[in-house]
Each structure stands twice: as structure tokens, then as C-alpha cells.
């Protein structure tokens, strides 16, 4: 079944067609493919809001010990709607002694994110670096089992709270081999990566599972190696949903000319792509131009679902001397910030509000590129029941279900007067429970549940849309979702 959404804010749409598009966005629960219209320019005033206009997120790496810095937190809460723990969810932090887990810092970040309507990218379950000393000294079956236990325990602890996990980080070698990097993990056997992905899927079926690496941003021997692995995983049903491109750039390693083409070839394998650790050393207009190139490349690809910068202010960066970020040391917006925001506001393809199924069925590897061309804006109005809301807004739910659980993505579309606060109500079937929500505050977790806007998505222009989502156990909602002004 197709779910057609109207999100072309600012487009001149004939009144009858507009009414029809609004009507189909109301109370329709759809499963499967989503056809989304490209967004047109509308001024998001923050990075997160501007990215959300096209269904994407804009995130940052966060160092939890900086959450007491008011300037840092002010920018974080204002600008970003996705966070990645810079170090706090890594193996050395979460399992300092074997089988003794410490989630204190990671949990602080998750709490901060949930309180502020942000989602969380988990980073990273298995990596040759930042291993605790006890693991560094292990090998063979003992290390393999310890790694799988780590993946299982950590992904289970954060089950339902993580949008996407970097399951395996930086496992390919630099240079021209295109092969795996030598490491204690690699020496446990070439199948260690797929074993980690299977363990992560079993522990948290709702999280997208990503492979993440650097120097894979253009087409080269290393990215060819990752490409072959993803192709093989998809063909054999190994659960992989996304590939992260770290995108650490400087004058020696600038944004590659084939950056977009490289992202697209991975999407064509049937995975999402995400820009996961973006930073670009430099200053002024050349840095600003490079940032806008990266943003434009992602926005040109409908399954490039979000961008994360690796820190907030230049002084927060792991490469502080290269001033690679969007805010200066005082928290002022740089030219790179403005070019990034402008590129986001220029729009692009819209991300389909679907999540990958947690099954291991391999999709065909010959799927054509899903959207480099926006679908036509004249989709014929299907016949559906009229909106059940009061005319202020409508809500449509896309559901991705599996035995025992579901992820719902809800699109809120404003009526002709626009919105400055909204609430969506729906009813879950008996036995279903909401375990996690993003970009909305939840009241109730079973039966009648309501979802209210958070600060960055309260304002929705006339005819425009915003999205939130939630994950649950049991069966997802099948009835009408209603939307009202809050
Ligand atoms: O917390 C200790 C502190 O107690 C101690 O006094 C100090 C002395 O060196 O070290 C502090 O830990 C440092 C930690 O960052 C927190 O600041 C580590 O030494 C340092 O090695 C660690 O660096 C991190 C690096 O990963 C380690 O590989 C960076 O913050 C982090 O930004 C960086 O992130 C990686 C991604 O995970 C993967 N991709 C590459 C990226 C950049 O290297």
C-alpha cells in the first residue's frame, strides 16, 4: 500500500488538489512503500529544524562531561535533534572489566536526548580501538565470545532507545588492498563482523544497524572493500541497514569529487547512508563551501537520512587546532554554519518515512536508485476517508511491524492556519506498549497515547509537515490518528 504525503510547503497547489492531499494525510495507517514529495524552500532557523523539513536529522557528537557547560548545552538543545556519544558508549567505557558494565555516562546522554526530543546514534559496539585492557589482551574464541557478549549486553541495555548503532567501526585497512584491517578482532575469523551484526539485531530489533568507517567517502580501494562486504551481506541476509561515512576532511583529504556518487552506489545496494562524524578543517568561505557541498550531496539522495558533525564548537573538536566545526570557541556561528543551514533550507529529496524491516530477507541487489528525481507533485488524489481532526492539522502513520514489535513514523501536517504546538492522539491495541519515542513528548504508553510537539518542531507552517516516531512492543496502531492544535 502506498502512503502519499503532502509536504511541499510554499508550493502553489490548486485548492481542490490541496484539500485532497490533506485528506489523505489524515488518519491513514499505511504499511510499505512511501511516496514523498520533495520539499521546497522554507526557512528552518536551526540545523535540526531545517534538516527535519526533508525528513532528515542533524546531529552532533556529545561529550557528556560538557553537559554542565551552559553555552555548550544551549547550542546543543537549540540546533540538534540527534546525538552520538563521542566516547561514552565505546567498549572501554561500557565494560571496563569483563562482564561488569558501566552505563552511567551513556545513560546521561540518553536521558538528555529523551528530555529534549533528540534521537541517539549508538557508537560503537565493536572496534579495534578503545577496547578495555582486558579485551586487548584476549584472542581467539575467548575474544570472539567476549565481543559478542559485549554487543548483546550493550545493545540490550539500550534496546528501544537507539535510532542506529555503529555495530562495527573502522574494520577495513587503509591503502590499496581493499581488505580488512588486521586487528585482534579480525584474527578471530573473517566472519566476526557478521556475527556482531546478528548479535546486535537479536538484542535490539528496532535499531538500524550500521557499518561505519573513514576514508570511504569517495570511490577508492577501501570503500570498494566495504561495498563488496555490504553487497555480500545483503545477498546472504546478514542484517545490515546502513553505512556511516565519517567524513573527516582537511586540505590533504578534501571532500571527494565523487562523494555523492559514492553515497548513491551504497544506497543502490539497499542500505541507508548517513554522514556520521563530519568535520572539515579550515576557515572562511572555503570551509563554508565544503560544508555546503556535503549537505547538498546528502540531500540529493533520499536514503541519506542524516548528518552528524563531530562536535559543537571548534574547541570541542578532537582536531581543535584545525577549527573544523560550525561554531567558534565562543559558541558563535561561523560562515560554515550559515552555508550548512542555507544548504539544508534549499531542500532536496525527502526521506521516505519508513524504517528497514528487522528481518533478514535480502532485497534485490538490482534496485534502481530510488530518488534522484523528485516524484511529480501532481500525484492523483486517492479516495480515502476525510480527516478526522478539527481542521487544524492531520496525522498519518506509517508502520513497520515484525512479530512482537513495531516502529511507527507519524507525519503531522498543518492546516491552512499553521501550527504553534500540536498534539496527536491514537490508540494502541491491547497488549501493545510504547517503549521509546523521538521528536515528541509522550503521555501514556498503552491504550490511548498522546504525543505532543517538542520545542524545535512546534511551529509548522500552513500546509507544511513535521515528523515524529515511536517504537513499541506488541502490535502497532491500526486505527485513526487525530491531530489538534495544542
Ligand atoms: O578521559 C581521559 C582523561 O581522563 C585523560 O586525562 C586524558 C589523557 O590523555 O585522556 C582522556 O581520554 C581521551 C578521550 O578521547 C576523552 O577526551 C583519550 O585519551 C583520547 O584518546 C580520546 O580520543 C577520542 C578518540 O576517538 C579515540 O580514538 C576522541 O575523543 C574521539 O573524538 C575520537 O572519535 C573517533 C570516533 O570514535 C571514530 N572515528 C574517528 C574519531 C576521531 O578519532
TrEMBL record:
Q: Which GO terms describe its biological process?
A: xylan catabolic process
Similarity comment: Belongs to the glycosyl hydrolase 10 (cellulase F) family.
What is annotated as the active site? 277 (nucleophile)
| PROSITE patterns tied to this protein | CBM2, GH10_1, GH10_2
Region annotation Disordered: where it falls in the sequence: 344-391
Q: What is this protein called?
A: Beta-xylanase
The entry's keywords: Carbohydrate metabolism, Glycosidase, Hydrolase, Polysaccharide degradation, Signal, Xylan degradation
- Which PANTHER family does this chain map to? BETA-XYLANASE, GLYCOSYL HYDROLASE
Q: Which spans does this entry mark as compositional bias, Pro residues?
A: 353-385
Give the reactions, separated by semicolons, that this protein catalyses: Endohydrolysis of (1->4)-beta-D-xylosidic linkages in xylans
| Superkingdom | Bacteria
Q: Which leading EC class covers this enzyme?
A: hydrolase
The coiled-coil segments of this chain are none
The EC number(s) attached to this protein equal 3.2.1.8
Species: Micromonospora wenchangensis
All copies of the CBM2 domain together span: 386-486
Indicate the segments forming the GH10 domain, all copies. 41-343
One Pfam family name from the record? CBM_2
Q: Which GO terms describe its molecular function?
A: endo-1,4-beta-xylanase activity; polysaccharide binding
